Amino acid sequence: MPIRKAIPPVFLVLSLSLIYLATMAPGLTWANDGADGGDLITAVATGGVPHPTGYPTYLLMASLFQHLPFGTLAYRTNLFSAFWAILAALLVYATVTYQANLSGHKNAFAGLIAGLMFGLSPLVWSQAVITEVYTLHAFFMALMLFLIVRVSIQNRHLLLDGAKGLAMGLAAGNQITSLFLIPPVVFSSVRKSAKNLDWGAMGRIFVGLGAGLLVYLALPLRALNNAPINWGNPVSLKGFWWLVTGELYQRRLIIIPVSGILQRLQDLATILFHQFELPAIYLALIGLVYYFKPTNLYFITIWNAVIFLAFALLYHTGDSYLYLIPVVLSISVWIGLGYSGITNQSMHYRFGLKQVVAVLVCIFLSMLTVI
């Protein structure tokens, strides 16, 4: 990769790394609605089973960070969250950059802006510096978006269909809500034309999905350790089902009275507004509306925004607003596409001007987000 092309992604990774490390919680904390941190850290360290839905993908992957040779156990697990937030932002960068290239814009700075807006949004930032499952969830959401956009139906290796399903299954092993992605993943992969479907691709996706979901078999195996944390004791079918279906929390779903729906929707809209501020929101609207094209990218980002906003609205818990992170992901992509469309529409004939504007926009929007 030429040095010039490497500058935006390297800058993105380094800047987010420095910011996250500077604001990282030094140990276990309940800040940022991180009350589950102790449960997760202990379950990972002792081979136990945390609260529903068990999070087997998180348990297996976080154990790698707990073996780092520095810091406290809690600090190392906090670093795990930062690591996946950075990778998720990098995938946002790659997705927007690739889409801009497809449109003939070749605008890496659009991807940089999108990645920064995602990584520095208060919701993502708050989860990147504590122990929680949401940045790994964001990574898998960004990964599925990238795979769907990057791999076209006309130029696709057969194994990639299975890879999408596998990634979705592993994602569900971290957050069961990842299964909301089944419709856009299947639709974008198996549609040959308006009337014809690729049934082979559909089969490969669901085989991969089944393989990924096998990660849940780790839960009964961990329950046999007799660890101090063993929610549901999933060695029996009844205990396993209680755990992985989140039966404990199901009563919190769709219990909001109709009179409270509008107020809750207003509260969630306020949270989303505070992620970006007006200039970035204008760019997102431009990217979504003015430069809209009926592509897989727009389909899955709109789906993500709608389905996770609805879930955050109807799931009545104190931290349900954290399910807006996939919505933030979609908006960040639209911001990058809006910037790409504007700059390439008006400045393609002025050498260097696009780069100067990109740097100024990055600084301005980043300052707004940090403030």
Number of helices: 16
The computed structural class is: mainly alpha
| Ends apart, CA distance between termini | 34 Å
What is the beta-strand fraction?
under 5%
Oligomer, anyone?
A: single chain
Largest sheet report: none
Unreliable spans: 347-351
The coarse silhouette is: globular
Number of extended strands: 0
Q: Rounded to an integer, what's the Rg over CA atoms?
A: 21 Å
Summarize the structure.
By secondary structure, the protein is mostly helical.
Question: What are the SSEs and their pairings?
Answer:
Elements: H1 3-23, H2 37-46, H3 56-66, H4 73-102, H5 108-119, H6 122-128, H7 134-150, H8 158-172, H9 182-190, H10 199-213, H11 218-223, H12 237-244, H13 258-290, H14 296-314, H15 325-346, H16 353-370
Report on this model:
With 371 residues, the chain is mainly alpha-helical. The protein contains 16 helices and no strands. It has helices at residues 3-23, 37-46, 56-66, 73-102, 108-119, 122-128, 134-150, 158-172, 182-190, 199-213, 218-223, 237-244, 258-290, 296-314, 325-346, 353-370. α4 (73-102) packs parallel to α15 (325-346). The longest helix has 33 residues, at 258-290. It is globular and about 60 Å long.
